[in-house]
Amino acid sequence: MNTSHASLPGTTSDVLIVGFGPVGKLLAIKLGQQGLDVVVVDRNAAAYPLPRAVTHCSDFARILQSVGLAPDTIPHITEPYDDMYSWRDRDGRTLVEVDWSGRGESDWYNTYFFHQPALEDALDEIVDGLENVRVMRGWEAVSLSHGAEDATVGMHTSVGEEMSVTAEWVIGADGANSTIRNLADIEWHDDGYFFDWLVVDVKLRPGLKFPHIAAQSCDSRRPSTMVPGGPGRRRWEFMRLPHESTTDLDRTEKAWELLAPYGLSPDNAELERHSVYTFQSCWATEWRRGRVVLAGDAAHLMPPFAGQGLGAGARDVMNLSWKLGAVMRGHADDSLIDTYGAERIHHAVAFVKFSTSLGQVICITDPAEAHARDQRMLSEWKAGMKPPAPPRPGLGDGVHTGPFGGALARQGRVRVTDGRDIVLFDDAFDGPGAVITRTADTLATITADARASLLDLGITSVALSGSAVAGSVIDDVDGTYRRWLDELGADTVLVRPDFHLYGSSAAEETSHLITEFLSKVGGRSASAVQQNESTSSAYVRTKES
């Protein structure tokens, strides 16, 4: 939709983000920390005060770490869950147990439960400290016009004020009913899955102790979910039955009625909120149109059964923010933004479909069908069959290479050789982007121009041994990186700023790996790429002699 905004008072920015939920806040922080001028608008005059998302994974924990909110520094907001997720039938028998324990590649726990309003408050504080990020609450986007090198969004307030914002890039992070997606006329694919659930959040009163467990009841009389809700809180979700209306279900009296079997009442718990949500499986068929890009629920929507909805939006932020930063600072052509959608839609849709498959098992209200399911699952459980593992789809086509390209990079504890403290890698180098190689001799094959080009993109150069003339040498405290290189059969890895692996290589191919990467993203200059390739050839000749 193209609309004239010539008569509206307006402002300009590098990036306009429409939507100031957690995805919009994270993106504003990541772009603002790169020095970009960012305007964020949201139609709500105040922050939404109630929880929505309640769980996150190790990937999301690493993303929080990247903005200074590592989980172990905010125990009042998020807490690890190092246990099983149990599915039970109507008689309480175990149908399956999903292992949510342990730590992931990012060296954070695989599962956390958190209080979203408290997390958003912490993100707000970071945004408030960025002078180049302006937040405008109470402004609703109503029109969009496309230019060759920018886009303009017209907006108004509830009292009739009008204005426009023109930006080089407009990001629609405005939720499932995205105005920006609709104005850009981007198709929304609906997979035809939808069920209504009552979501109930409870704050435990002093003295009430509740088991720190996560459980799924597959009772056809009322499928339900019970999980932690962050420190001091619990979350229940109850499926709407076919004979019920959403109005009947979404009542305070009904919420307490459904909580009563768990021993909860107004005497020992506070009902923070109850609301009926429609769980759906949908995604945008394209994530960029001109200078408009989608992120978060505006780009994809999934049922909550895999706990990946908000995590998917945060992954969007990590992928998009380093690419937008590279383009805006002149280190890449804007075609790099096309790889954002190509990479992320593959990953996001895999989780939408996985979440849907879990819901198809859970959301059964026909007694005969539920009985058949239970007998099958009980038999499989007794036979030792493992539960379905979450997908590990990697990224779709884009900026990565080789059989392991697009996979998540590892993070381990390191000590920089000229320091004493043992820290996680990302904290030592202000982010995950890095060329990591076994020896400092390999680092020496990287030209100064290539190193500078990498640094421009947020990628440092690190060796696990030797004395570096350029770059850094680290003590791989727990052997995380040596084991990873061994598993890959490689001497060098190139990790992107969104902690996905670009690719891996033998030592003598390191410069070629870097050259290929810089060529794909734009790099600093063609001469830096050519010079780096020449150095690589000389290194190979020296090794052969």
Fraction in helix:
25-40%
Q: Give a quick account of the main beta sheet: strands, pairing sense, barrel closure.
A: 8 strands, mixed
Cα(first) to Cα(last) distance is 64 Å
Tertiary shape: globular
**What is the strand content?**
25-35%
Radius of gyration from CA coordinates:
25 Å
Note the total helix count.
15
| Number of separate strands | 26
Poorly predicted parts: 1-7, 539-545
Overall SS class: alpha+beta
How confident overall, as mean pLDDT?
92
Overview of this protein structure:
The protein is of the alpha+beta class and 545 residues long. Helices cover 31% and strands 27% of the residues. Strands 1, 2, 8, 9, 10, 11, 17 and 18 form an 8-stranded mixed beta sheet that branches. The chain has an 8-stranded mixed beta sheet with strand order 6-5-13-14-15-12-16-19, sandwiched between helices. The protein has a 7-stranded mixed beta sheet with strand order 21-20-24-23-22-25-26, with helices on both faces. α1 runs parallel beside α3 and α14 runs antiparallel to α15 (526-544). The termini are far apart.
Features:
8-stranded mixed beta sheet, 545 residues, alpha+beta, globular
Q: Which secondary structure elements does this structure contain, and how are they paired or packed?
A:
Elements: E1 10-18, H1 22-32, E2 38-42, E3 55-57, H2 58-66, E4 78-80, E5 84-88, E6 94-99, E7 111-114, H3 116-128, E8 133-137, E9 140-146, E10 151-156, E11 162-172, H4 179-183, E12 188-204, E13 214-217, E14 224-228, E15 233-239, H5 246-249, H6 252-259, E16 269-284, E17 288-289, E18 292-294, E19 300-301, H7 309-328, H8 338-362, H9 367-382, E20 413-416, E21 423-424, H10 425-428, E22 434-437, H11 440-443, H12 448-456, E23 460-463, E24 472-476, H13 480-488, E25 492-495, E26 501-505, H14 510-521, H15 526-544
Parallel strand pairs: 1-2, 1-11, 2-8, 5-13, 11-18, 22-23, 23-24
Antiparallel strand pairs: 3-7, 4-7, 5-6, 9-10, 10-11, 12-15, 12-16, 13-14, 14-15, 16-19, 17-18, 20-21, 20-24, 22-25, 25-26
